[in-house]
Structures are given as structure tokens and as C-alpha cells.
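user: can you give me the structure for this one chain? C-alpha cells are fine.
assistant: on it. calling the predictor now.
[tool input]
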Amino acid sequence: MARGRVDPSRFSSSIGGLPAAKHSFSLEFPVPSFPIDQIEQFSIKLLAAGGTTDEEAQTVGSSLVGANIRGYASHGVMRIPFYLQMLEVGDAHSGVDLTVISETATSLVADANWGLGRVQCGRLLDRLIEKARQNGLAAGTLMNSSHIGRLGEYCEIAAAEGLVSIMMANTHGAARRVAPPGGTAPRLGTNPLAMGVPHRDQPLVLDFSTSATAEGKVRVKSIAGEECPEGWLLDSNGHPTTNPDDLYSEPPGTILPMGGPQAYKGFGLALMVDIFAGALSGGLCARETPITPKGNCLFLMIIDPSQLGGTDPYNEQVNQLVDFVRSCPTAEGVDEILLPGDPERNSIARHQDQGFTIDDENWQQLTALAEKLGVALPGE
């Protein structure tokens, strides 16, 4: 096992006295591979047993498994213990309404009341899709939301409706992980950005953190006892490191901005995302002393192409562009040109063929949680 494995309790305290799984389970058994539907039902049951409503468990559990099978383990089922911990300590709430603060024909400003992020953001998305259908476009914001999950999921939903979308989220001023270029202390969150456009039956969905990696990916590595790739992290002295625990040290390390030698571009994007999500929503931007739980403020815009340039010209130009880019000659050793959305579709195909797997340490956290909540393991 790699050096420096961090105790998950450093991310959140134990659930109802549940110890970190690595302290109570052996590593000597192999992690099984499950059919996707079994792990989805397992996730739903864990959430429901841990305090969500049945409807919330269905929505959130399906979303988390969907993230895993698309290659986003950082936004997948490893989040379940942390979501339930937030419910237990009151940093998130089950069964709350989405409060509309202000509304026009083309805008909606909402307060999630610290409800489960996937549920509340889904409600905002549904409302904005209706408005965009009626008026051509709609923009909305959300504040006081717990973790909303993978941004690309919302863009996929909009694209399936034939709509274009752009979405940004910050950390509600509470989770600083990224230092400005040349700095050694974190000032911004990883502040993701996603865009989605319909294209035949394979929408183009771009979803990325404005940092070199999502914080959740560092968390996965830390719990699994693995090193991070080079180029992800700096320690608290500003030196490159591959030890994920350095991010959670005191003083903390930082995640590098996206952009490598031109990191000012990634950091500049992160700064703008913080403003779009935190300031426009009436929520919070990054600050030295957080005054809310860790969560998300967000900005979301939905556009109906039929009410701008028109559906036929839109389809013609997007199809032509995609075909032109895919026709590019490939370098030696490259089999195909990949566009946004392709890696996720390829990952889904692999999981459907090989089943759902998860690393030892994250699986042990889920099995320990299942034992605590009296939930049967998949296949039992």
C-alpha cells in the first residue's frame, strides 16, 4: 500500500459511531464485480436507510452509480458515507422544498435550503427547461445546496431534450483547494464548468474542473492508499507532490490550476466561475473563514436552438463540424479522435460488459456502512 493514506474521518466524522472501514475489515478478500443494477439498488437502500426519502434515494443513488460507470468515481458511490454524514450532523436536509426567491419568464433564482443537491438542482433544471421551451432561453441560480454531483449529468439531460446548456458551480465559499499561480495557500475551490449540446444520438458534453483534477479524485486516491499522478498537487510549501494526504495537511497543500505552464488560464476560469455561481446566485464566493457547510452555489443556462438560429441550421452545422473533426488523420498509436462525451460512453460500455468494481478501501467503507444500517450487500 502506498504511503500516507489518510483517515476518512478527516473528511467527515464517523456516521453514528461507524468507524472508518479500514480499521474493522480485512484487506484479504477480493472485491467482487457486480451487475450495475445490483450496485444501484444497494446504493438506493443505503441512502434510504441513512435518512433520505425513498424518492431522494432513488434520484441520488442512480445519479451516483451513473457517475461511476461514466468514469467519475470521484462523484460516485464513494460519496454516500459523506452525504449521510451531512444529513446526520445537519449540514444537509432531507425532504425540503426548493424555495423560489425571484422569477421572471426567463430567469429563476432559488434557495435549496441545504437539501440534497442532486434533487434540488434537478428541480431547478426542470423549471429552466420549461422556460427555455417557452421563451428560447432561461438562466437560473441556486444557493444553499449540498453537493450537486456531476455537472455533466444535468447537461446530458438537457441535451436529450434537444437543448444547449452551460453550467458552473463553486463551493459556497467553504472548500478552498486551489492556490493562484505563484501562491502557496488555497484561495478558490475546484469550481467545475460543464457545457452540453445535442448531436444526433450522441450529445457532446464537456465537464471539467478548472483545476488540474477534482478534489474528489484526490479523496479517492487518499482513501485507497494510492499516489496521485504528477501534476495534480503542491504541498503546503508550494512544492510538487504525489501524496494525496498533503492536500489535507495543516497547513494544507493545494491542487494546481488547470493549464500546466499556463495555469493562469485555469485559475482565471475558476475565478469567473466563483463569481457566476456565488455572486449571481446571492450565495457566497470563496473566503478565508467559511460561514456555511461545504456545498454548492451554481449558475445554469438552458438554450433552445430552435428559437435562435433554428433547429435545421443548428443540426447541419454541428453534424458537419463533428464529422470534420473526427476525420482528422491520427498520429501513430492513436485509434480514433475522441470528442466530449466519448470517454463517458466508452466507460459505460466497459462497465456493462465487465460489471461494476470499486477499490478495496472505498468498498470497505460501503460494506461497513451497510453493516451499521442493516442493509444487505449486493447479491445477498
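assistant: here you go. The first strand starts at residue 99 and ends at 103. The beta strands are 99-103, 107-111, 137-145, 164-169, 192-197, 204-209, 233-234, 240-241, 254-255, 296-303.
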